[in-house]
Structure formats: C-alpha cells, structure tokens
Amino acid sequence: MISINLVYEDELQKAVMLRILAMFGEKFYPGTFFPGNGFGYIKKRIHNFHEASKIMPYFILTDLDTAPCAPLKIQTWLTGDKNPNLIFRIAVPEVESWVYADIVNFPKQFRCQYTIPNGADATEDGKKFLFTMIKKTAPKIIQEEILPEIGTSAKIGKGYNLVLCNFVARYWDPHIARLHSKSLHRAIVALERYNPV
Amino acid sequence: MMIKRLLLKNWKNFSSVDISFQSRMFIVGPNASGKSNFLDVFRFLHDISKQGGSLFDALERRGGISKLRCLAARTNSQIEIEVHIEEPGETPVNWIYRLGINRQPHGKHDPCVSYEIVIKNGETILSRPDVDDLKDETLLSQTHLEQTSANGKFRVLASFLSDIRYFHIVPQLIRHPQAFTGPNLPDDPYGRNFLELLAKTPENTRNSRLKNIEKRLRILVPHLTELSFTTDKFGIPHLEARYEHWRPRAGKQQEEQFSDGTLRLIGLLWSLLEPRDSPLLLEEPELSLNTAIVRELPKIMYELDKATRRKRQVFISTHSADLIWDKSISAEEVIILKPGNESSEAVLASCNTEIRGLLESGFPISDIILQYTAPESMKQAYLEEFFHV
User: Fold this and answer.
1) Which ipTM did the prediction report?
2) Do B357 and A47 touch (CB under 8 A)?
3) Would you say the pTM of this structure is higher than 0.80?
4) Which residues 6+ apart lie within 8 Å of B272 measured at CB?
C-alpha cells in the first residue's frame, strides 16, 4: 500500500481525490491532508512540496481556471525536472467539470439536464456551467443548496460542499467521468502508472 | 533553572513519555489528546512541594491515585515521574528527581511513595525507601520533597518546583467574581482573585508592571490608555483605563467593561512580568485574541522575559497555528500529542521523520503542525466513506 499525501484547494477537490484513489483498491492509502483554501497556498509552496516529495509521494490537485493550458501552468509553477513522486494534476477547467463529467449519475442525483458534446474540459468555467445548469433545470430544493444566496457576496451555496462531496463519495463514477474529461482521464492514468521511486 | 527532560510512566493518559525541553515549549494536539494532563504533571509536583502542600493533597485534588493512573497500566500500575533540572551558574548543577507512587500492598491500600530518589551532579543524595521507611511504613505516605525538615540537601529543587505557576485566566471570573460561589481554588489558576493579587502587590511594583503592560497593550489594543489600579469606596479593587475614541473626553472604564481579549492579555502580561525563575504553564493563551495579536505573542513573551532579566521557562498548550507562526520557533520546541487507543504519545516535532523532511523542504512549522494534529477520527470518517474501511 502506498501512503500518499494529498494537497488540494477545497473540500470538493479533496473528495474527488479520495474517490479516485479508492478506484485503485489497496494500492493507495491517503496520508496527511494539506488543505489550501484557494490556489495561492499551493502556488506559493509548490517547490516545497516538490522537495518534500523526495521523501514521500504527494498528489496535488489544482484547477486550471484562467490559465491557457494545463502543461503550461505546471511549467510556470514548477520549473525544472519534476520528481516522479509528485503527482501534480490540473482539473480542466475546474474540479466541478470532473464531477459533472459523470453524465449518468450527476443528472440522475441532481435531477438536472445538460449536454457536454465536446467533453467537460471544453466548458469554459466549471462552476459557472454548473450554476447555470442547476438554475435552469434542477428543482428549487437543489438550487437552494448549491447556488449562492442572491444579494450576498457568497461564492457558493451553504449546502454546496456537503451535497457535492456526498455525491462524489456515494454516486460519482470516475470510470464514466473519465470518458468525458480528458484531464481526469490523464490524472487517473498517472496514478495507474505510478510506482514510488 | 530549567526542566531539561521529563520521563513519565502511567501518568493519566500517557503510558510512557521521555521528552527533552527547551526554554520555550509549545504543546499541540487534537482535543482530548492530553494537553492539560501533560501540563498537570508540573502542577502535581508544584502541589507536593509548595508551602503546606503534600503528596496526599496533590493526589486528593486529582480524585485519588486511581484517577491519575493511566488506563493502559496493567501489570505495572506504578506511577513514575522523573524530571531533569539544570541549575545554571558558574558551575551548573544537574538535578534529577524521581518519584514512584503506588498503593500500599497491604492494609487499606493507601497511596504511598514506592521510591523517591534525588541525584545531584550524578551523586545520589536521597534514596527511598531507606532504613527509617522500612522501620515505619507510614513515613512513605509523604515525600521528602514536601518536608522542610527532610529536603535540606535539595531545598533549591523543592523551591523551584513549588514556584511553578499555571495560568488560564477566565475573564468572566475577573469581571464577576461574586457570581461564582464556592471556595477559592488554591493558587487561583483561573484568575478569580486576580484583582486581589494586584491589590496585594506593592504599589511601586504594581504601577511599574501596569505601565509595562499598557505599553504592550498600546500596540495590541490601541484605544486603551492610562491603565491603572484603583479601589472603590467599599475598598474593592478595580482595574481601569481610558478608551480613546471619537469622543475627546472619554470616560474611564473598569474591568467590567473590558473585552475578554483585553482582560486575558492583561492577565497574561502580568504573569509574564512576575519575577519567578520557575516555569510558567499557559493554557491556550490564544483564546479571545485576534489572529494578528496571537502571532505577536511569542515575540512579546521573549521581550518581557528579557525585560525581567530572567530566563523563565514557558510551557504553552495551544490549538493555534498562528501562535507557532513566528519563524524563530523550532521543531525542537514543539511537542506533538497523538491520542492512541489506550494512551497518548508525546513526541518532539523534530523527532518525526516526515515533519523533519517538510521542514527541510522549506515549510514553516505552523503550516505543518496543524495537519499532523488533526484528529484521526476525522480522517477515519473519510476512510470509511471512500475506502469502506
């Protein structure tokens, strides 16, 4: 069993990382959690995590957000040769898109409708896509959980993390989602191929 | 003087501890990992050695020997405490005090000293049970540490331990002491009689300390000025200060109107200014304080220690990453408590290979420690949810 430390920006990313690791049965065991509260922390500490990965493997997940492409973002953040013990993956455009890339279970659980003909990675803004689709098609009870309260500066609804993390733990199927998100597929492949150095 | 090392066996939730100390130690760990129990061993030694104190009282105050003994203790149920103390000077003296406590094997099974040893610079100057103890077992109900007639050869050690101070101010107790009935606790650890303590302090000393406190408070609570001590017409002591704000002639306010944070800070600074050489035990000093102030505390503590020209050892239990944010704090100064199934573990952060690796990779200690002190139960919940284990 490989004990691997997890570095992430938010709760939903953590849930997704744990679910992906669980796909591999007994191969991985989550070590220490490093919550970032936004990408700033990971960007600031990426070289330190890289250095630390010489002792223990790290799985780092961050969103692409507005960067032009994932490889460029990795190169900008982490110059030079990358230690194979550092699995640094980027969700394109955001981890939310990995979640709704499960086009079977997501619409079923949240009672919503959407299409992603060019794949989830092609949606411009993961959270915006999710909010618009929930607002247009999901029942009010689900909207109230997920959408930020109107007239406030909140970025997400009060039940956002709870509802989406529960979904990821119980219903999200990464085998389906990887078919509709290339960045997720590549992250899973990286973990499949990974053997500690 | 300074406690350099502590060894414990079967003490509360620690079945075994062996840890070295610096002059400033931070104790971190999840809830119920034993932070207060860890500090309590120093309070226990204080309770034995203080004026009028005794092993009997120290045990009684803690609900008897059965409440003190580690649950994991089975075959060896003896409680053992060993402290290594360094007395500085031209020729430094190294003291070791060892105490074993158990129940008497017969009779009423009362608690007794199973052994008591004092070593000075490698030479044993007390070793009990001695001939007298063997003649009269009742003598083993007391330590020599608590008896002035018996601790002559190691009085300096007894005074050092008796002077240990625990501090955990509860602002409500200072503000409304009359609302809390019942007898006062010995040593007033929660500050119920803090104002009386101020009243008993000689005027010059009190004024100079309050001035010193005000100077620091000006940085931390900028609107507060003219911090002073006064008594009302009934002779009841009060703290008062002026709050400068948009009203040019603002009236003075008394402790009742001070915020929780201000009162805790005043108490904390006062205790740091007390001219003692023995350790100060602080429990969660970050409570009620703003993050920015909490980050300043280690610097202020150092500054006050220098101001009093004493190198007073401080043990601080905390849940706050901000309190260990200061870059001068080393992994040798952080004790991590980890609860296990039967007993807790206490280790220096510098002894953990992974933490050492992260520090060498450039992480500040405050970034790391919180991840290592997150409750295992939280992680277990994730494992159950995602890995079904």
Assistant:
1) 0.76
2) no
3) yes
4) B280, B300, B301, B304, B305, B308, B312
